[in-house]
Amino acid sequence: MVSTTASQQPEFLVQDLVGNFFQHLAAAQQHPSCPAKAQQGQAQAQTKAVVSTPDVDLYETSDAILIDVALPGVSKESIAIEYDTKTHRITISATAAPHRHIQDEAVKAVKLERGRGTFERIVGLNKQVILAQEIAARYEDGVLQITVPKDPKAELKHKITVA
């Protein structure tokens, strides 16, 4: 994890903390042990897809924001990325195949920690002007790398003269 001080882009920290809270809350509500799900009946709760949030590393350079997302076991074809120009958020979603031994009745799962099913992660960016049409992504060795270029011509601060 990259350490940061309060003077380094606090809006990234707040947006990420708030986003993570609501993502984990939504994931918890999808879990069969959630009271709301229990009331709907065990069979119905078990048919819901498991939702998890992949780990994300966020870096910033003078000309881009770099996002690395851990997606081991995910096929490149199942990855979807969207950037919302109004909310300045990138949504990353994908689906991981079931565990390889899950279909074998002779194999008993002792511990399953790796997430499977539908993944989703929303990364909030600060309000700077992003070159949305130039966002690029590549997937290699289980890591999705997204490059979000900043507009070098955009004014981040503008001085106003009082008349």
TrEMBL record:
Coiled coil feature spans: none
ATP-binding listed as a keyword: no
Residue stretches making up the SHSP domain: 47-163
UniProt keyword annotation of Cell cycle present: no
Pfam entry (one): HSP20
UniProt-listed InterPro entries: A-crystallin/Hsp20_dom, HSP20-like_chaperone, Small_HSP
UniProt keyword list: Stress response
Family named by the database record: Belongs to the small heat shock protein (HSP20) family.
The name this protein goes by in its record: HSP20-like chaperone
Protein's organism: Protomyces lactucae-debilis
